[in-house]
Amino acid sequence: MSGSGDVVGVILILIGAAISLISAIGNVRLPDVYTRSHAASKSSTLGVLCTLVGTLLYFVISDGYFSIRLILGIVFVFLTAPVAAHVICRAAYRHQVPLAEGTAQDELKDYYMENENIDNKNTDNKANLIEKEVKLQVTE
Amino acid sequence: MILETIMIIALCLLMLAILANLYRVVKGPSSADRVQALDSIGINLIASIAVYSVLLHTHAFFDLILLIGILSFIGTVAFARFIERGVVIERKR
After folding, report:
1. Nearest chain A residue (CA) to B82
2. Cα of A41 to nearest chain B Cα, Å
3. pLDDT of A3-40, one tens digit each?
4. Which of B9, B18, B59 sits opposite A65 (nearest CB)?
5. What pTM did the predictor assign?
6. B26-49: per-residue pLDDT in tens?
7. Is A38 exposed, middle or buried (0-12, 13-18, 19+ CB in 10 A)?
């Protein structure tokens, strides 16, 4: 069943699955929402792209079947996954989700305070979130 | 035979990735964490469907890859707008 040419697709699929697992481990272990988004968006996009390209190569080599739908899926995931991560990160920042403890500087803070007119209506929410983060770091 | 073994190993890796993201969905302190983890689960589901279609040696599921990609993106953007502004669709007054 498996010829010698299928090996390329199979190896790409295995590499993609391993990269997805690494991305999920980063999503569990990193300290705040922005670093988690960094792990989750970039490496899981790379993992799913490796898996889909491996699937495409497998079907091209073994069946001679070239799937336009798979090409569309690859292009769509490649375009939209970083955009979704960006939108989520911006929403989290404007909702004043706190950064990690060891953050050196916050360059967006002055910009948003001047231009976006975020007032103090979410301060109790922010305090709750800080309490939760502190509890989480203590329990870990 | 060895192809099936490798595909099942890849499916197990993807299952572990989905479980780790599910941990983040349950425990994430803010809602942005949960939305991010759900988006990542959607992307891992796309990869799982691709691996499973190789395992079954069929190309009937390729529509599903495109469909889950589009639905995951739309859901993530809608929930991000809800977190950011309080409404999903703004109406003109």
Report:
1. A91
2. 7
3. 677 888 899 999 999 999 999 999 999 988 999 999 98
4. B59
5. 0.81
6. 997 888 999 999 999 999 999 999
7. middle
